[in-house]
Amino acid sequence: MPAGAAAKRACTLLYTVMDLSITRRLPCMTLPDPADFPVRAVPLAPLAKERATIICHRNQRVLLVARGRASRWTLPGGVIRRGESALDAAHRELREETGLADLELAYFFYVDGSVKRHHVFVASLPRGAHACPGREIALCRWVGIDAISHWPASAPTQRIIRQFAGLCAASDLQPRALTRLSSSR
Fold first, then answer.
1. What is the mean predicted confidence (pLDDT) over 47-59?
2. Does residue 140 register a pLDDT over 60?
3. Which domain holds residue 20?
4. 30 and 54, same structural domain?
5. What is the pTM of this model?
C-alpha cells in the first residue's frame, strides 16, 4: 500500500473516532481496511493473581482466619510472590498469618475463583501446635467441617472446604490419613 493511502486511512480512522459526522463531509477519504487491524482473542476474565491457600485441620475442624472483626472468614493463605513457588508461599503465609511453621504441607488441588487461582494445600496439625493471629490477621478460629456452610466464610473458602470434605467422605478417609497419602506421592 502506498504511504499516501496508509496516511489517508489513518486520518479517516482518527476523524471517525473523534467525530463520525466528519467522514460524511469528506467523501474522498475511505475507511480503513479491516485486515489492517488483526483481531486478538482475549480471555473474558484473566486470572489476576495466584494464591496459596492452606487447609489446616484437626479433629474434624479446620482453621479459619479473619483480618478484622467484621471481615469474612477465610482459610489461611495469600498471594504467591514473583519467583516464589506455591509451596514456599503456603509456608510463608501460614507462618505470617498464624505463627505455624515447619508443618508438612501436601498439595491438594487448585480452584479458580473470579480473579484468583487458589493452590490448595492440606496440613494436619500435630498435638501442641497452636495458631495465633499474626500482624495481618485479627482472629483465628477452629470451625467444624460440617459448620462451615453456616459460618460467615468467603465463597471460595466454603467451596474448598466442601471439596475437601467430599473427598474425605468419598474415600472413607480421615483427614489425617489424606494428608499422609498426599505427601507420600
1. 86
2. yes
3. 3-36
4. no
5. 0.67
